[in-house]
Design a protein that fits this description.
- The protein contains 5 helices and no strands.
- It has one domain.
- The chain is mainly alpha-helical.
- It is rod-shaped and about 95 Å long.
Length: 118
């Protein structure tokens, strides 16, 4: 609306505070890029969902292995497994914020001893 007012008023054109041609170009660019931005956001959401699904599958598999290893560690002949079960148990006891992303969890894990925890 401001562009129309400036175009209609010689006095406002004279103060040279707004280039109406540039303003209209910016509006056209914004309208042209909106669908592209919308599509990119949709792709981002789909990729995020895909990654969340992959992480959930990996987490379920890891917990299943932990459960199996815990049962195997009950056998006194499997002390080598018991050591790993204890490490996994300690990792599972760590408190994490509910909305922490895997990348943030890795970054937080690197702060202590420089080793990534998996």
């Amino acid at each position: 609306m401001t562009l129309d007012v400036v175009d209609a008023s010689g006095e406002l054109q004279g103060v040279r505070q707004m280039d109406t041609a540039d303003g209209r170009d910016m509006l056209q660019l914004r309208e042209a890029l909106r669908p592209v931005m919308s599509n990119l956001l949709a792709v981002h959401k789909r990729l995020d969902l895909l990654l969340s699904n992959c992480e959930a599958k990996a987490g379920r598999a890891a917990l299943a292995i932990y459960n199996i290893a815990s049962r195997l560690a009950l056998n006194p002949d499997n002390t080598h497994i018991a050591i790993h079960v204890e490490k996994l148990r300690n990792e599972l006891r760590k408190k994490r914020s509910p909305r922490q992303t895997p990348a943030a969890a890795r970054a937080a894990g690197e702060g202590g001893n420089g080793k990534e925890v998996r």
